[in-house]
Design goal:
Blueprint (H helix, E strand, L loop, with lengths): L25 H10 L12 H11 L2 H8 L6 H8 L23 E3 L2 E3 L3 E3 L13 H11 L2 E4 L7 H6 L8 E5 L6 H14 L4 E4 L9 H5 L14 H7 L7 E6 L2 H9 L4 E4 L13 H11 L3 H4 L1 E5 L5 H9 L4 E4 L1 H6 L4 H22 L23
Parallel strand pairs: 3-4, 3-10, 4-5, 5-6, 6-7, 7-8, 8-9, 9-10
Antiparallel strand pairs: 1-2
Helix pairs in contact: 1-2, 5-15, 13-15
């Protein structure tokens, strides 16, 4: 099965009805909380976009801007959110879906988790809550999902890993390589091994500083600045610096996916840095489609992860349908962290509920059997004109 080549048309700006989340009545019901810069009750939130709304009304502008901002004109940020609605699902009816919830658990690099989604690495969790990354660790532990901790965290790496809910909770560690010294890289990897991380997520999509106009107005620039020195040749070299698998995060073309596979990686991570790095870079869904069209064997050769713009269960289903093993969410969990670990756990529960029910309504009785035939990829559809 070959999917029609991509030709994503833009929704006319004048017709775009919202920027961050659709109007589902939250302002009318909970607007007083935003007006008073207070958080609405956690139980009053109905979905992941509500956490964005709550955080925007509660956090100070500069801190919220650090999470929310995108590169340049933020076209990639918007595309990440809007690309999912351009493809219609193909629901099958009269299917036995009674065991759909029991099919949510998955493995990621051999480790067991309760659902095929995870908390993507995001810097500076302390902007949302004093507990910072500790809320993400605890919330992930309660939900039994994976948390990929950021190198640029407000809490120390050792404290983050010490906050795990039990000895079996698995965390992966995201890194940048800022120091061109082999010794510095070896030391960083040794520190990661020592705290108990099970994999290294190496961000590769940030060779230069992201041009972020919105963030610049509030003095909230990139956590990582300067030009990168490392290449695929250096990537191959550093794989010998650690016993942990190194997963390149920020794959945006089929060519780079092939290059990573050629170097023997166990997994690749499709991402455009949340639309924060290079404007007009493709969404993870577009990259997954490109790989499916041109090198579908990659989904069998390595595990494929993807993040960017996922806000609903059906968004994740479209990525899983192409062969993605697990889907990452970054901003939604950072916004949920304004409530501390309880918000993080609540957001995870919402996503599980939506995944199970959207899969059921799609006619998928076992999430592990979902395939591209459940989505109409053949034409570019627009809700608005």
């Amino acid at each position: 099965m070959r999917i029609t080549p991509l030709a994503f048309a833009s929704v006319a700006l004048a017709a775009r009805p919202f920027l961050n989340e659709p109007d589902t009545g939250i302002d009318g019901q909970l607007g007083e909380f935003a007006a008073n810069k207070t958080l609405p009750p956690l139980k009053a939130l109905a979905g992941l976009p509500d956490f964005d709304w709550a955080a925007r009304g509660y956090m100070n502008r500069s801190d919220y801007t650090y999470y929310r901002n995108g590169a340049a004109g933020e076209w990639s940020y918007r595309n990440n959110l809007e690309v999912f609605q351009r493809f219609r699902v193909r629901p099958r009816v009269l299917k036995d879906i009674t065991n759909i919830e029991s099919s949510l658990p998955t493995t990621i690099l051999g480790y067991n988790f309760s659902a095929p989604f995870f908390i993507s690495p995001c810097a500076r969790a302390g902007y949302a809550h004093p507990d910072g990354e500790l809320g993400l660790v605890k919330g992930a532990g309660q939900a039994d999902i994976l948390y990929m901790a950021s190198l640029y965290s407000n809490k120390k790496m050792g404290d983050i890993y010490a906050a795990r809910q039990n000895s079996s909770q698995v965390l992966f560690q995201q890194v940048y390589l800022d120091d061109p010294s082999d010794n510095a890289t070896r030391k960083l990897f040794q520190d990661i091994e020592k705290v108990g991380a099970k994999a290294i997520i190496l961000t590769v999509d940030s060779p230069g500083d992201g041009i972020r106009h919105r963030a610049a107005r509030d003095g909230k620039g990139s956590a990582n600045t300067g030009y990168s020195y490392f290449t695929w040749e250096y990537f191959q070299k550093i794989q010998g610096f650690t016993t942990l698998p190194i997963v390149p995060k920020g794959i945006q073309t089929v060519e780079d996916a092939r290059e990573a596979v050629k170097l023997g990686v166990k997994a690749i991570f499709l991402s455009n840095h949340g639309g924060r790095q290079l404007d007009t870079s493709p969404s993870a869904l577009e990259v997954a489609l490109e790989i499916y069209n041109e090198a579908p064997e990659i989904f069998k050769q390595v595990e494929v992860y993807a993040d960017g713009g996922v806000r609903y269960g059906v968004d994740a289903l479209k990525l899983l349908a192409l062969g993605v093993r697990a889907v990452g969410l970054g901003r939604p969990f950072m916004y949920a962290n304004v409530y501390g670990y309880e918000g993080v756990a609540r957001a995870a529960a919402m996503m599980k509920y939506e995944l199970a029910n959207d899969a059921a309504n799609l006619g998928v009785g076992d999430l592990k059997t979902i395939g591209p035939e459940y989505v109409n990829w053949k034409s570019v559809n627009q809700w608005f004109s």
